Structure formats: C-alpha cells, structure tokens
Amino acid sequence: MLLFLFRRLMQGLVVMFVISLISFSIQDNLGDPLREMVGQSVSEAERQQLRDELGLNDPFLTQYGRFITKAVQGDLGTSYFFKEPALDVILGKMPATLELVFAATLIIIIISVPAGVYCAIRPNSMLTRAILGISILGISVPVFLTAIFSIYLFSIELGWLPSYGRGDQLVPLFARWETGFLTSDGLKHLVLPAVSLASIMLPLFIRLIRSEMVEALSTEYVKFAKAKGLTKTRVYFLHALKNTMLPVITVGGVQIGTMVAYTILTETVFQWPGMGFLFLEAVNRVDTPLIVAYLIVVGGVFVVVNTLVDLIYGLINPTVKLAGGNA
Amino acid sequence: MKKLVKSLAGIALATSLALSVNAASLKIAYDSDPVSLDPHEQLSGGTLQMSHMTFDPVVRWGKDHGFEARLAEKWERIDDNTMRFHLRKGVKFHSGNILTANDVKWTFERLVSSPDFKAVFPAGTEVKVVNDQTFDLVTKAPYPLILNSATYIFPMDSKFYSGEDDKGRDKGLLKKHGDSFASRNQSGTGPYIITERQQGVKVQFERFADYWDKKSPGNVDEITLTPIKENATRVAALLSGGVDFIFPVPPNDHDRIERNSDTDLVTLTGTRVITLQLNQERVEAFKDKRVRQAIVHAINNEAIVKKIMKGFATAAGQQGPKGYAGFSEDLTPRYDLKKAKQLMKAAGFEKGFTISMMAPNNRYINDAKIAQAVAGMLRKINVTVDLKTMPKAQYWPSFDERAADIMMIGWHADTEDSANFTEYLTACADADSGWGQYNSGNYCNTAIDGLVKAAGKETDPAKRTEMLQQVERELYEDAAYVPLHWQNLAWGARKGVQAEDVVNVMNFPYLGDLVVSEK
C-alpha cells in the first residue's frame, strides 16, 4: 500500500514535470505578455527593456532552469496580472471550483443512480424512453449553450435565480476557503452553474448505470435471488446495483477529473470566480506564469483523483491488488 | 424665450428629482476591472475609469469637447509656453491631507517617468510651483494641447505615497510588474474610496465623506464593480436585475435592452477609428496610388456599418471623428466599385493579385467579421485575400512584425486630437521619435509629417485646424490607408440610473455625479 502511494507520488511528479516542460515551451506562441501590460503609446524600445527586466529575452533553457529551480522550492512564478505568486492565486480560486464540481457531482449521483436503475428495470416504459431521449440531447448540446439558455430562462424570464457570480453572502470556513453552501443566497448562485456542469456528465452516467444494471439483471445470481423470493428492492439495490458500481466508480473518477476541465467553459459563462475562469482570463492576458502553474496544478489534481479512485477500487473489490508487481 | 422655458422646466425637474432622490447604491459590470490601483501603471480605459472615481483630474473633458474645472478652479495662459492653474482651496485627500501645488508637482514628475503616460506631454514639460494654490505647466515650445494633456494629471497624495512601506521600498515606487505600495493603496481626492478589492472578481467603492465637490448632484454612495468578460453574461446580469449599469453592450443585444421595460440603452458616437493599412514594403502594387485608391473604392464601409455593425458605428472617410480639429465634412466614404475597377485597370492590375491579410478576432467590435467582409469585397476587383484572424494576444506580435500585406488597426487618440492619429498611424516610421509606431503600411510622406509637426506648435486654433484639415485631405486623396468606421459606445442601465448625464466618448463615466432615483 505504501509502496503504491510512493510510486504514484513519483509518477505524479514526472507528470507534472512533463507538463511544465510542455507548457513552458509553448508559452512563446501564446502571445506577447507585454502587450497586455502597456498602453498603446509605449515604444518598442521601452517594451524591450521591460522584456529584459522580466527575463523574457533569455534563452529557453535559462528561463526553464530558473523556473525549475524555483519550482522545486514551491514557487511557480509570479502572475503578471495579480502580482502575486501564481500558486497562491490558483489555490485562492480553487475552493470556488471544488464547490462547483462537488455540487455538480452531487447532482449527477442523485439523478443518475435512480434514473439508470429505472431504465434498466423498465426498459420499455415511456419514462425510460423519455430519459434516454433527453440524455442524448444532453450529450449533444454543448455546455455553454445549456448555460446561456438556462440563464435566459431562469434569470431573465422567470427571475428565480441569479445569473452570475457566487453572491456576496459567502461564509468563511478556514484559511481562504469561503463557502456558498451555508447561505440560501450562496446556494441559489450555485444552482445554474452546477446544473449546467452536471448536464455534460449526467447522460453518460445514466447510460452507464443502465447498461451495467441490465447486464447484472441477467446474471445467474440475480435470477437465483429472485427465485429465492427476495423482495424486489433487495434484489435490485443490494445485489444488482452493488455490482454495477465498480465500472461506474472507475469511469466516475476519470470523469470528475475531466469535469475540472469543463469548468473553464461553465465558469466563464457564469462569471464564477474559480480556477477555470482564471485560466481562460490568463490565456487572454498572456499571463504565462499563471498558465503554466494552472496546467501543473490541474495535472496534480488528475493524479490525486486517479490515485483515490484506485484506492477506493481496492477497498470495494478486495481481489484487486494495488501494488501487484506482475499485474 | 424658448430657452428660458426650457431651463425653468429643467430647474423644476431638478427640484422634483432632488426630492425623490436618496442615497443609492449601484452595481456595475464592465468587461474588465482596473489592473492596478496605481494611476500611472498602465494607460488603459480601466485605469482612467478608476482614476475618475478615486482621484480627480486638474481639469476634465466636458460634454461639448470643452474643459470643466475640477481641482483647478481656473487657469490662464501666461505666455506661449506657460499655462497657470489655480487650485481650489481646502481640497482633502482620502488620508485627510490637504491638496497643494506640491502634490501636483510630485504627481506630474511621477507621471512623466511612466513609460505609458510620458507621451501625453511633450518631452521637457515641467510643473513649476508658484505657491500652495498655484502652479504653472511650462513647455519647451508652444504647445496647443496643454489642457488636453492636463486631463491626465490626477494629483496623488504626495505625503501618503512618501516614505517606505513594510518591505522597505519607496511608497511612491512605480513598477509595472511586481507588487508596489501604490498598486495596492490609494489616496486621491476623488468622490470614492476603495474599501475592498478582489482582483478580477470585484471592487467595492464607498463615497468619500469629505469630497470637495459639495455641488455635485451625485447621490450614489456605494458602488460595486464586477468585471464580466462574457458579453451574454453581462447583458443577462443587467436584464435579470443583478447589476444596474453595464459596458459594453454588443450590437446584437441593443434591441433587447431597449425593448425591456426596466432598462435603458445609452449610446454615443465614438472616437475610435478602425482602419486597414496597406503595406507598401511587402507589396509593390501598394506603392501605386491608383491601387490604394482602388482598394478604398472597392470597400463598402457603409454596408459594413449597416450589416455587420447593425448601424452601431459611423462610416469614416478620415481618421479623426467629427468634433476633432482636423475633421472636414466633405471627406466622406467613397464606395464606387466601377471606379475601383477602372483604377485597377489603369494601374495594370485588371487581373488582380493575391495578398495576405491579418485581423484580430477579439479586440474590436466584430473585427473578424469585418475582415471577412472586406476580403469578400476585394474579390470583386480580382484581389484575392488570404485572411487570417487571431486573438489579440497573438495579433499584436504579428502586427509588430508587419506579418501581412494588409493589417487592421483601431485607434483612439489619447490626446483627443486629430494630430495623434497621424503621429502613430500614418507618419513615416521613426524609432527615435516613436512616430509611425503603428504604421504597418509604411506609408511615408514627409510633407504631411511636417504639417503635423507644425500643428504641434501652433497655438492659434484657427490656423491649427486648417493645417490638420489639410493633413486629413492629403491622406484621403493619397489613399494612405483604408478608413472603415468609428466605433460607437453603448451602455446599458437600469431605469432610474441617469447614466446619460455622466457618460462620455472617452468612456470614463463621471460616476461621482451620477444620480440614481428610486427603483
């Protein structure tokens, strides 16, 4: 177990190192950061002087070496726009993103499990057809369209929900974590972004659970359990559903990581002050230190989530050996 | 008589409003928030918007392209090179310090040390303190635009910005990157104090209790500024009542805001001109005046304004807009396809040629669509355009390299004056003086440059106007560049927010004077 974690840590470091190398080498193609920092009348000579001061005229290896030396000490550079360490800026925005992802995950779980199970048990009912039909729509409609449409409907026409931001009634938890889960205003602000974000993954999970469940229902032990006279709920939820969970968790873990990437779109449309929005802004402003730091942090998040999924997998299914050398 | 009735009605209206008006709070959504609290760090719209809220200029632009007294209550020209300003008495900074001419001198010296702002004044300009309430702006040579430039002097509290901060650095330090005292702390004389700031998320302002302008009708004592980048989200925030005042409003959403019974659309004809530059160094054909004229005649910029900009722009035939010194009524757009074809034939390019073109896709309103339309129009005179559009972050480095035969550039004159357009866009490129810095067409006509230089020293407005009009005319006849249009400005406001009275074409609303009546 420890060996497994240690290996994962090493793998994670390698992943982050590679990401840093790639993101560092593309940064020259992102544009000129100076343009976003100076007014129109600043001369070329003055811009060159600023570039020199920032060290942007140094050769690639010098710049990268400087970056890596600092990075191993936990300093991923200073954002041009925020004038603060890039890592601090990102960690400051992370709670907002994590809350959004958490809320979306909650919505996915609450809806997809019953819907998936229902579709498997009653494959021919009207409701099943409706659910599967809508889920196709959900897969094919891009998230920003869902988002803009829901803003139009629920904020402008009906006036039920706020259209942007996290509101101003956030409750400080600890350090820089302010939560929107504890006030009704905070929750209202969460609804539209979370639903929009969930809408991308929801259809996938409904379909996944349905197909796994259909398969489980045709297995011998479920037939036997039915024959034994167990109640239907017991058969469906205890025997069948439990065994569908393994693939769902595997896919789920990966998808939650992907969801962090989808937050870029959702957060931008809803002006949600999280990491994804920050990243898009950083790209627009050519804030290269922030871009590089974001990519490294998100790489780290992927590694952590995958490690957790593997651990949980091991707990649920004891036949899986984590540190298995020859597996 | 009519005037008297009007002004009486105005007074009556004003009193009735005064009765119903109480202190109000305002939520604003712009497309960006100020990058720094330091008024000299970056010359940008965001910085100037902030400066007009938390600082106050010596003089500011009025509605009719004239000047309004702010911290200077009056000014007079002493001689050709000197303008004397008399400061108001008893003006307090947010820190409680009293404004004196020494603060102005301190601020001015800081301003001209800033790479962004130093071009606002001619090199060698000085502030001379006469006494606590009086100072002179002295230029090396006669300078006609001294008041235009003085709108950029927002006196800072020199005592507040003196000494060392907790990291042992000078509090007055002006630094572009890196966290200086002035980029995080402020003390100005303006109507608002910043109480909270989360960069990129929101800025919270509160009205300054000791603000000097007691006559200001403004009744907004709390402002929250949220930057909302996404156009659709910003408009939705206004329509759903989440915010009270937004800028900009994209042309496609004008109708929605106008039709909505709770919101108003406020528009002004703008001063930012959008142009195309034809690179004569890259394309031999562009050296021929007839080819340049053919291109100008082939582009139907009135149609672009109508179809792509939805009427939300003014088709241009020259650089400076109406109201600027060099503007002539008769330099109008000149779309004429037949003439364009004739010109091409005369120049020996009847069969046309192929050229490359670049334009940004997120810098100006509908920039990429405009570029596509232009490419389509040029095809009619057999000029095939290989068009590439890209985000501004990548566009500007390409622009600096002069990477395409035709490049798009929009320009707003920081001095609000005609000469500025030529200096940057159409003058012969000269790295030392900075002239022609944005002249990717490499157009060069020393006679025109000489005229602009002479106008820069001409203090007789009538003579100056004549010179600048001649500059525009010669550029027009020479087809030095392709004028497209001037972008308009649009704000969206909740009903009751009397935005019309405080907005201006420079796009720094004087929010200190904003009146908001009951919801």
Descriptive notes:
In chain A, a hairpin with a 2-residue loop joins strand 1 and strand 2. The two termini of chain A are 15 Å apart. Helices cover 72% and strands 2% of the residues of chain A. The radius of gyration of chain A is 24 Å and the shape is globular. Chain B is an alpha+beta fold and 519 residues long. Chain B has 2 domains: 242 residues, Periplasmic binding protein-like II (D-Maltodextrin-Binding Protein, domain 2), CATH 3.40.190; 218 residues, Roll (Dipeptide-binding Protein, domain 3), CATH 3.10.105. In chain B, strands 1, 8, 9, 10, 11, 12, 13, 14, 15, 16 and 17 form an 11-stranded mixed sheet that branches. Chain B has a 4-stranded antiparallel sheet with strand order 4-5-7-6, with helices on one face. Chain B has a two-stranded antiparallel sheet with strand order 2-3. Chain B is globular and about 70 Å long. The N terminus of chain B is likely disordered. At the A-B interface, helix 2, helix 6, helix 9 and helix 10 of A face helix 6 and helix 12 of B.
A few lines on this structure:
The complex is a heterodimer of chains A (327) and B (519). With 327 residues, chain A is mainly α. Chain A contains eleven helices and two strands.
Kindly list the characteristics that best describe this protein.
heterodimer, A: 327 residues, mainly alpha, two-stranded antiparallel sheet, 2 strands, B: 519 residues, alpha+beta, D-Maltodextrin-Binding Protein, domain 2, Dipeptide-binding Protein, domain 3, 2 domains, eleven-stranded mixed β-sheet, four-stranded antiparallel β-sheet, 15 helices, 22% strand, globular, disordered N terminus
